[in-house]
Amino acid sequence: MLYKIAHILRDKLPWIWDVIGIINSFLFGLRYDGKMTQVQNILTHFTKTTEEDDNTLLYKIEVLCKDNLSLLAKMFAEQPASAFDFFKPHGFDELSLNKLAKDKSFLAYIVVAEGNAQQKVCVGYFFQRSFFWGKSFRGYMTDYRWQRRGINKMMNLCATEISSLLGLRVFGTIAPDNIASMKSAQTANDIHIVETLPNGDYYVEYRPKKD
User: Fold this and answer.
1) Which domain of life does this protein belong to (predicted)?
2) Does residue 198 lie in a domain region?
3) SS3 state of residue 78
4) 61 has which bridge partners?
5) In this structure, are residues 97 and 69 in contact, taking their beta carbons and an 8 Å threshold?
6) Statement: the pTM of the whole predicted model exceeds 0.85
7) Residue 27 belongs to what domain range?
């Protein structure tokens, strides 16, 4: 129900959505700012170095901010139209991304890669649009040129650790035709299908995998 209401407000009554967003950001900060200081430790844990085609690559996860959002905007601009068939959570220009980066309740992160033969680029993006009462909605995208390198799994694992730290229940939507997204999510989470939405998408809950 919350998912449906949120989309109606965002699409039909954007000014109300904006006001709610300001209030939610403030209240989320009051409740979670203390724990958010520990998130950087989680991000650092996912830093890794790999050898690919005689090139040493460093992957790391960064909080989306004004200093790196241009990298994300560039990644979005270079994706094929088909990449957005199942991914339309917000605007993809720098102005829209800067607004999201300032929202304390919008937990947004990018995966960057750089190496001795590779300048720093954004290769992945994930977010959790969160609410101060403890509910969150996840989304993510990997640059089409960097797929099949474990980036989706890295992002899902990191997002799950962050939500576990904060005590958030995390939900999202997965289109039945988007088999790759479902398989990727299942490598890092136990996926519980809550319901099938009118458009046919699965409304799912991302749960930490049980040991």
Assistant:
1) Bacteria
2) no
3) coil
4) 111
5) yes
6) yes
7) 2-164
Domain-embedded: residue 197: no
Q: Which residues lie across from 192 on neighbouring strands?
A: 205
- What is the biggest distance separating any 2 CA atoms in the chain, rounded to whole angstroms? 52
Nearest CA-CA partner of 135 in 199, 63, 205: 205
**Would you say residue 173 lies in a domain?**
no
SS3 7: helix
Residue with token string 């991000």? 43
Q: Helix, strand or coil for residue 161?
A: helix
Is residue 61 within 8 A of residue 162, CB to CB? The reply is: no
Token pair in block for residue 48: 């890794």
Query: What is the mean pLDDT, run by run of 10 residues, along the chain of 211 residues?
Result: 62 74 94 96 95 86 97 97 88 95 97 89 97 95 93 94 96 84 85 89 89 64
Please give the single-letter amino acid code of residue 29: G
Give the number of domains in the chain: 1
* 8 A C-beta contact, residue 136 and residue 102: no
Residue 125 forms part of a structural domain: yes
CATH number at residue 93: 3.40.630
Q: How far apart are CA 113 and CA 147, in angstroms?
A: 13
